[in-house]
Amino acid sequence: MIDKNYISDLINRKLAGTDCFLVEVKYSPSRIAVFIDKPTGITIGECSDLHRFMYNDLDGKDILETHELEVSSPGMSEPLRVYGQYLRRIGREIQVIDQTGVVHKGILNSADNNDFVLSTTKIIKEGKKKMEQKEIRTFNYDGVKEVKLVF
Asked: How many CA within 13 A on the CB side of residue 150?
């Protein structure tokens, strides 16, 4: 049966041994949308190559008659979903919404398999003086609702 897991496994087999990685598969009644990336940014050629590979595998399996197949990079305004995307964005400003709904903005300092580190700057008033206070926060991937790049 062709389902989201089948599609994910198919893509991961194709991407094995490359620096490309799967970000997300969206599987709906009429569309299969695949988002891939790599540390230096995915190219149109790489998306086309994966599309051809998937099309050849799925051809004749009655799925392409009912589903549109799309392969692309995740948009810049899309949330970060996988570890590889965090690595690619180190040094960039991101916005984190934690599980309680609190918004944190800062620079992504580092990331590993379990969590990522955000450097923030707060303006604090002491009397009539305004001072900057730097803060380093570690977030677990499971402990956040959403993480996006800030433009």
From this structure: 14
